[in-house]
Amino acid sequence: MSKFLAEFIGTLTLVLFGCGAAVLGGDHVGQLGIALAFGFAIVAMAYGIGPISGCHVNPAVSLGAFIAGRMSAREMVIYWVAQFAGATVGAAILWYIANAGGLGGSLGANGWGEGYLGEFPMQAAFAFEVVMTALFVIVILGSTGAGSSPGFAGLAIGITLAVIHIVGIQVTGVSVNPARSFGPAILVQGQALSQLWLFIVAPAIGAAIGAALYRFNLLKAA
Fold this sequence. Notes:
Keywords: Cell membrane, Membrane, Transmembrane, Transmembrane helix, Transport. The protein is mostly helical. The protein is built from 9 helices and no strands.
């Protein structure tokens, strides 16, 4: 129950801070500010709930941990339920605040194509999400594995997520996290919901690639 609650709160916070920066403060903080909001949210939660659940707050990360042999299938499913629920509640809170302030909008939903930020095609969006999720999972598994300095893992992971956003906000708004995409999409509906499949499939593939490198000892501590 503690792990479930920790993942629920952590994913809620990630969506509320990260997507909130885009929706409520994007005009003022810009792309860099949004990227840092996502990264700082992960740093905060890594030290806040990391000792309880490991601070996955991301179904792709939990999938990677499962493939790498660091958690059971049952535990992974429990994490997934908590993460999707937390992301949905976080998006709902943001929706309420934004609408109360007369902002409305997309809730920071992910997407691609005509009319979405840099208008990158689906192929570019898919490739970006696969590659960046793989790299993200590699950093997470490496910084928390044998021979690492776990006290600094939160910083490494948060900085990595911030850099991924700096690079890719114009491409997809950056998911690398199916739950982060799910929460806003089910509330916004429309194009965000119809494109949600990519932000589930591509991060899952990326997570599997990154985790397989550890599973088969292609990456291991000396």
